Amino acid sequence: MVRNIQLRVSLKEEGQLGLKTKTAKYLGISEEDIEIKILRKSIDARKPTIYFNYKLEVYINEAIPSTKDYTFDYKDVSKSKPIHIIGFGPAGMWAALRCLELGYKPIVLERGKNVRDRRRDLKAINQDHIVNEDSNYCFGEGGAGTYSDGKLYTRSLKRGDVRRIFESLVHHGATEEILVDAHPHIGTNKLPKIVQNIRETILKFGGEVHFNTKVIDFIIEDNLLKSIILENENEMNVSRVILATGHSARDIFELLHKKNIALKAKSFAMGVRVEHPQHIIDAIQYHCKGKRNKLLPAAAYSLVQQVKGRGVYSFCMCPGGFIVPAATAPGEVVVNGMSPSKRNNLFANSGIVVEINIDEDIRKYEKFGVLKGLEYQKDLERLAFTSGGRTQTAPAQRLTDFVDGQISADLNPTSYQPGLKSAPLHSLLPKLIGSRLRAGFKAFGEKMHGYHTSEANIVGVESRTSSPVNIPRKANLEHIEIEGLFPCGEGGGYAGGIVSAAMDGERCAEAAAVGL
Question: What is the pTM (predicted TM-score) of this model?
Answer without folding.
Answer: 0.95
